[in-house]
Design goal:
Elements: H1 2-28, E1 36-43, E2 54-57, E3 60-70, E4 78-85, E5 95-100, E6 107-112, E7 130-132, H2 136-168, H3 170-198, H4 200-223, H5 226-245, H6 250-256, H7 258-280, H8 282-298
Parallel strand pairs: 2-6, 5-7
Antiparallel strand pairs: 1-4, 2-3, 3-4, 5-6
Length: 299
């Protein structure tokens, strides 16, 4: 009976030890039932990386940091060992990137897989190339420092320019010009005020008179007998058209009788020929005129 009790106590102690072991590793995030591959990376500064920190591939957790060893006699003092699930094969050229795991979550390892065609893989236990990626606070601080440096340089240039202007006396000239411009603006304001007070009412009255005149003209046009005027114009046009198309009148005969047109055209051609011959042989007509006068004297 005594021995059976001791056996029970031993079995309970073993079960508690196993539960404690598995529970401790479970809380650490270690899956002891799955096989893993280990890889090693060397860093000169961890920036707060600790054991059990997560390992990511494109934002997906694939493992954790198993061990961190240090040797401060070397520049790359920290030796970091990570474990990755065995079913995940890392191609050659994969980098261990030390990065920030959020603003308040500390540091983590990000595995950067190279682009392009994959021809070979790591078997496990190899030392991977490492890289450090600045966190958001470091990037923000670097950007702010850069902007502050630029602002300080601009301020220094502005101060130097101001001092140079003071030494050369240009500042006094600028102030004098500004004062003169201010006086001109004051004078312009006074002139505008005087114009508004003295001349603007007269201009408004003239505009009112012009508008009234235009209204009177429009009223006169509305009162005019436009229909009678248009009727008289149409009657005149009809009369002109009847004269042009009539065959009894002189103008109608001239426009409609083709023989009269032909006769007039031949007469014009004959007169043109006579004038041309007169210009070419003036003596002939002078001789005819002289002999004609002698005949009249003999009679």
């Amino acid at each position: 009976m005594k021995n059976s009790r001791e056996i029970k106590v031993g079995i309970v102690a073993i079960i508690c030890g196993c539960l404690l072991y598995f529970g401790f590793h479970f809380l650490k995030g270690v899956n002891i039932f799955s096989a893993t591959r280990t890889y090693v990376g060397m860093y000169s500064d961890l920036g707060g990386l600790v054991q059990q920190s997560p390992v990511y591939i494109r934002g997906y957790k694939v493992g954790q940091v198993d061990e961190i060893l240090y040797d401060f006699t070397r520049d790359t003092a920290f030796r970091v060992t990570i474990s990755v699930a065995k079913e995940i094969q890392l191609p050659k050229g994969t980098e261990m990137v030390l990065c920030s795991d959020g603003l308040l979550s500390g540091m983590a390892i990000k595995l950067s897989i190279p682009a392009g065609e994959i021809t070979d893989y790591y078997a496990g236990g190899e030392m991977l190339p490492t890289k450090v990626e600045p966190g958001p606070m470091e990037s923000l601080q670097e950007g702010l420092l850069t902007k502050v440096d630029i602002a300080v340089e601009d301020l220094d240039s502005l101060i130097l320019d101001f001092r140079q202007q003071v030494k050369e006396g240009n500042l006094k000239k600028t102030l004098a010009n500004a004062e003169r411009i201010t006086d001109d603006l004051i004078q312009t304001g006074q002139d505008l005020k005087r114009f508004t007070h003295d001349r603007l009412p007269a201009l408004v009255n003239n505009v009112d008179t012009a508008v009234n005149t235009i209204n009177d003209v429009a009223a006169n046009l509305r009162e005019a007998d436009l229909k009678a005027t248009v009727a008289r114009v149409n009657t005149t046009v009809d009369t002109i058209q009847s004269v042009l198309t009539s065959k009894n009148g002189t103008l109608g005969l001239l426009l409609n009788d083709k023989r009269l047109y032909t006769h007039i055209d031949s007469t014009v051609v004959s007169v043109d020929s006579l004038v041309t011959d007169l210009k070419a042989n003036p003596k002939r007509y002078v001789h005819f005129s002289l002999f004609g006068n002698k005949d009249k004297k003999k009679k």
